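Homework help thread (please don't just give me the answer)

Our assignment gives two proteins as sequence + structure token strings and asks us to describe the second one. The first is just a warm-up. Here they are:
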Amino acid sequence: MQEEKKMKVKKGSLAVRVGSEDEDGGFQRFVIPISYLYHPLFKKLLEKAHEVYGYHTTGPLRLPCSVDDFLHLRWQIEKETINYHHHHPYHYHLPSSLSFHSC
């Protein structure tokens, strides 16, 4: 029962799985707001996920990037969201240090 409760995702959120077996921590699960799905940077990652994994997957949405890259992407989205509320400066380019790769 406790394990089942831990796996549930609250309304308005989505579970994703990032990383690879080759990474130190392996795969990691993150819960993100559904609003990320509409952010241009995240949309690019979703397009890459479609290329790598296709549409039919079970369990959390798999994303083809390292945990470090995902954490950087999440930080960038959060930073832009905060800046948007203050200044409205949205810039939608991927940082050169962020690279998506097949997990």
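The one we have to describe:
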Amino acid sequence: MRDTIVAGAHLCDEETVRVVCTEGPDRIRELIAMGASFDHGEDGNLHLAREGGHSHHRIVHAADMTGREIERALLEAVINDPNIHVFEHHFGIDLLTSQDGSDTVCLGVDALNAETQEVVRFISKVTLLASGGAGHIYPSTTNPLVATGDGIAMAHRAQAVISNMEFVQFHPTALADEGLPIKPPKRRENAFLITEAVRGDGGILYNLGMERFMPLYDEREELAPRDVVARSIDDQLKKGNDKYVLLDISHKPREEILSHFPNIAAECLKYGLDITQDPIPVVPAAHYMCGGVRAGLQGETNVKGLYVAGEVACTGLHGANRLASNSLLEALVFARRAVQPSIDDMISSPETFHMIDEASDSWARPVVPSALKSSVVSDILRTTARVRRELQSIMWEYVGIVRSTTRLETAERRIKELEVEWETYLFERGWEPTMVGLEACEMRNVFCCAKLVVSSALARHESRGLHYTVDFPHLEESKRLPTIIFPCSSVNSTWSSRQLQKQPIC
């Protein structure tokens, strides 16, 4: 608990931290029972690693591919359960909502089958978002390609409360392709992560002059929390006008390095780098969104029937900066906690389907742009790709690791202009507000999340955790409160801020 709260710059919700720390071990035992295979020491017990910000060795892992192993075990369990139906390659367009007095109620989701280009409407009394983060609002991210903030944007449009979006964690050490002996033939779609455990295992950070620099910034040196290490690297890059720094683990025994970090060693060797002999070129990359859809202790949101778990959620666990490895733990704990309340919702809401009958007549159906010429669609796709790159570069340039009020205001203005330009381009070419396509819908969500990050950052007049601004460089006890973004009116709003099914039916 203490390590989590210290890393979170005392913005964590203490009850949430207690719940996760208390229930976490049982969730890990359940994973093992499901077939997840974790590393064991010579004594037969689980091998526990240590990462930045942790005072003890306590992290269960599967070599340097823990997330992959957990996902493998969970997917296998899902496939083998006859009661679970998986709809692959379906993209969530918008949540379906209705008003019940002052309450917003979620009644399902519209989705796009990306393979068949067919819109599918799922009606449900209970919906749980587990859609991950929004790393692709930045040009370089460790996140998978699908992390375009879709769940956060859908929830925001559906009147869910959003919290703490200014706290974007940049992982301090992603592989810097520019520093590899053999350059990758094309730009990576997502950055390759050099795990925190390399520093936990004794890895040392050097600048290109081979000067060790972390002791200049923090007494915890390489084991300082991620926000401190990322800012320190950023400072070194700016001072030397360099593209990367170096992370060296080569002083450790070769066999130990290869057994602890087989995946990293193999990836680097592909490009001519032997990590048992040479330092690894690293650079910060967008990694984790500490903010998201505001959730209670059961994963519930202010929208009835809507639950969240994982990175899409803001439970209060991470505060202003997530402690290493707490992401997987939080996802497990809150997914489990949402089970019983969602069952209760199913049983206790007989009136819901009556509401669906009433609402569904007024919901517009999203349509694919089959009425547009293929040349027009191609032009729209090309323009959307350019706009996305432009937005990402604005975010990196003005809303990165170190911020200022002027730069944030510049970002706000330029994003607004870019969004108007993009939407005007679409609609002038015959795109309708109810039209959907994967790239256009992702772009709309990227715009939505980028604006949420900028407005949250402008609202915090202090530096805390991952949010560092030169205009308010100190921590202010009076400002130790979460940032809250309440639902907004959709009047005069942009396409990215409006639910598609709420468009007028022609």
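TA reply:
I won't write it for you, but here's a hint about the kind of observation we're looking for: The first helix runs from residue 2 to 7.
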